[in-house]
Amino acid sequence: MPPPALSSLDSSTTVLRLPHPYHTPYAVTKSSRTHGSDELPLYQLGITSTAPAGLAADRASHAVLHSDGIFFTEPTDLKSSDRPHESNNTPWGRARRSPSVTALWDAKRSALPTPAQLWLLAYLVFTVRPAEEAFRLTLNDGTSTAEGPRALGSRLKDLTLAVDHPVDSTDGAAAPPSELLVLRSTFWQAPARRLARGPRYVPHLAETFSMAALDWTDDAHLGLFHAWQNDPRVSQGWNETGTLDQHREYLRRLHEDPHQFAVLAAFEGVFFAYFEIYWAKEDRLGAYYQSGDFDRGRHSLVGDVRFRGPHRVSAWWSSLMHFLYLDEPRTTAVVGEPKSANSTVLSYDFIHGFGVEKFVDLPHKRSGLMHCSRERFFQLCPLAENDKVVGGTGVGLVPKL
């Protein structure tokens, strides 16, 4: 399915939503302006007209991430006659096959855009075109000297939000200094970004995913864990049925164990799942492979049946992995140990970049030792609603999903 065109987006529909402390929902609006001899339509990002009024005070106390003075074009691919052949897999060739976006402002009427405002534009592009590994960004302030675009481009590169467009190795010609390359892998590693570990808006669900540390002394948290573990569907895999006191003691011991911690996950503030996050080297799994000092693993269960289904799994599975990499920059791998016969869990792992390192015999089960490196995760960036294929390939997985 081709990605949606900006022209097809309803101006009243939220495309992006920033988490706390911004709370800002954004929509794309087509302006009356055009760009260039081809009269390309220009668009703007603005706060959704249906945004709750109660959020205005929160937004007012923080930096504004959009501007009425910034316009941008639709992500546009080169014509086939201008597009380098797939056999040209040089950095230049790959960059030229990436779509192009031009960001424009009038230097006489508007202030120089901030890096945060260009970050918001990049967020939009990678939301509507999640399969793109990069896009070319041209900065244009309407002047012949282009001093503003050069200064802004330099700041974007300093923040690692963009890099210089690669040089064509056949003739050595450099791209204009106002044309940059924005990399998806770098964007999702949150360069110079304070929202790294906050809640995440999931566009294909139009809901926000968040996590909270489970408090074993909180009756509501304990009640959820107790109810879920005694659900026959959950106990089939976890084998942790028990009384309220037994579950309180289970969570107390886990809380006091420095190598792991318990988390509740929520969509739109409604807790639906329980995760256990651990340091692999200090876990029993660490004895079965050459674990890195900061490798992390996770166990998970969905307790609320209203939140089951592959469209939701693709949201929380990738969000949890994303959190683990952003939470600790020294984490170079995320691992797991699902039952070797659990085709559903194995398939979801394959979709999100894991591979089977080997099979290990734990005392209570034979498991697949699943491994996903940081490099592979951010190469794939499987944060959208994913096809049911092995991550990065066209190899299909079981239709059961």
Automatic annotation (TrEMBL):
UniProt biased composition (Basic and acidic residues): 76-86
Family: Belongs to the lysine N-acyltransferase MbtK family.
Lineage top rank: taxon: Eukaryota
GO biological process: siderophore biosynthetic process
Chain spans, region Disordered: 75-98
Domain Acyltransferase MbtK/IucB-like conserved: residue ranges: 212-261
Organism listed in the record: Pyricularia oryzae (strain P131)
Name of protein: Aerobactin siderophore biosynthesis protein iucB
Gene3D superfamilies to which the protein is assigned, alphabetical: 3.40.630.30
GO molecular function, one term: N-acyltransferase activity
One Pfam family recorded for the sequence: Acetyltransf_8
Coiled coil: none
Signal peptide region: none
SMART domains, alphabetized: AlcB
InterPro entries on file: Acyl_CoA_acyltransferase (IPR016181), Acyltransferase_MbtK/IucB-like (IPR019432)
